[in-house]
Design a protein that fits this description.
Blueprint (H helix, E strand, L loop, with lengths): L6 H4 L3 E4 L4 H9 L4 E5 L17 E4 L1 H13 L49 E4 L18 E4 L2 H18 L5 H10 L21 H4 L14 E2 L4 H10 L26 E3 L5 E10 L5 E8 L4 E6 L2 E4 L5 E10 L8 E8 L4 E8 L1
Parallel strand pairs: 1-2, 2-3, 7-14
Antiparallel strand pairs: 4-5, 6-8, 8-12, 9-11, 9-13, 10-12, 13-14
């Protein structure tokens, strides 16, 4: 805290702070410290959120701080050196899910998988207002045009920018089609060829990343899209009891289930027997084209697509299919994850499945 460090003990020293925060660096500097090593929150796992310190400093993961502390306690004259900043490329594994990332299941409607997508949000170099210091502290009078920041607020602009560029390439596409292109072309593996992990190194799942990590180079040519109209969304709202959005629209007495919204992912909550849902894809790729379905069923469930082959002769042509999910005997009622994919040899149109 401000005023908590003794200048006599701190002067010329590198101080290890077992909590993060730029204000701690300000206190170390006030007390004459030579540098600071701070630690990320245990909740951040291996993710390290950098800070704009007022003096030479670095940050380490919470577990690494224990190693440093043990070293300090092992000798009467512990020594440390903070090297100049260096750019490190091709870090592995990357990407991984940040500890602060939003996660499912969807608390409002569990039959719609959330999140939809994940995107870069950890230590993003972005434009910064010169009216604000990089640390946002009153005593900090530095002026910068760019600064590092982290959070879902940094991931969101990546997706918004891709959506804007995609709308420029395909001006007639609906918002639902744009969402579909972003989701079905996402990647669920890292640069080591393994499945995405959490900040703690454990395997992540669709409740962490949705359809996967955003791939900007793929979105403009997804092959197929799951489109949905304004009326489709009104019917979806009817299915969850929301009927006052549009006064000109009257909900039918028996609206389709929430599962039947033409969404690029599939979530089924509390499945005891069998459920069949409808999906429709629109060909936005080449003509003619033939797409063949493949399935990775969630553990404890069987998944069948009918038909298994879709034939397209025109761009803009629509084809519908059924997805039947059946719970096997002896299921434990736990969350289970899988996927189904349409492939024409050029495009892979992947949709995650979550069932419980």
């Amino acid at each position: 805290m401000p005023g908590s460090l003794s200048p006599e003990k701190t002067k010329g020293k590198i101080v290890l702070c077992l909590r993060e925060g730029v204000e701690k660096g300000a206190e170390v500097k006030r007390a004459g410290g030579a540098g600071i090593i701070s630690t990320s929150s245990p909740a951040d796992g291996n993710g390290i959120l950098v800070d704009a310190y007022h003096l030479p400093g670095t940050k380490v993961a919470a577990l690494d701080a224990i190693t440093i502390l043990n070293y300090i306690n092992s000798t009467k004259k512990p020594m440390a050196q903070i090297d100049p900043v260096a750019i490190v490329l091709d870090t592995k594994p990357a990407p991984f899910m940040a500890g602060f990332s939003s996660t499912g299941p969807n608390p409002i409607e569990p039959n719609i998988l959330k999140p939809d997508i994940c995107a870069p949000g950890l230590n993003i170099l972005a434009a910064w207002s010169e009216a604000s210091s990089p640390s946002n502290l009153d005593m900090d009078h530095r002026v910068v045009q760019y600064n590092f920041d982290s959070g879902t607020s940094m991931a969101t602009p990546h997706v918004a920018g891709i959506a804007a560029l995609l709308k420029a390439v395909h001006p007639t596409w609906s918002s639902a089609a744009i969402r579909s292109a972003i989701m079905t072309t996402a990647n669920v593996k890292n640069n080591q060829g393994n499945y995405l992990t959490t900040a703690f190194g454990t395997e992540a799942n669709p409740f962490n990343y949705g359809s996967g990590h955003l791939r900007p180079t793929k979105v403009s040519d997804p092959g197929l899209v799951y489109d949905a109209s304004y009326t489709d969304y009104l019917l979806f709202l009817c299915s969850i009891g929301v009927n006052n959005v549009d006064k000109t629209f009257k909900c039918p007495s028996n609206p389709p289930s929430a599962n039947n919204l033409n969404y690029p992912s599939l979530a089924i909550a509390h499945l005891n027997g069998t459920m069949t849902v409808n999906r429709t894809v629109t060909n936005v790729g080449s003509k003619p084209s033939v797409y063949i379905a493949s399935v990775e069923p969630p553990l404890g469930f069987s998944v069948k697509l009918q038909p298994k082959i879709l034939y397209f002769t025109e761009v803009g042509e629509k084809k519908s299919f059924l997805v039947t999910v059946k719970a096997k005997k002896g299921g434990k009622g736990e969350y289970s994850f899988g996927s189904y994919t349409w492939n024409d040899g050029i495009h892979e149109v992947r949709s995650p499945i979550v069932v419980w």
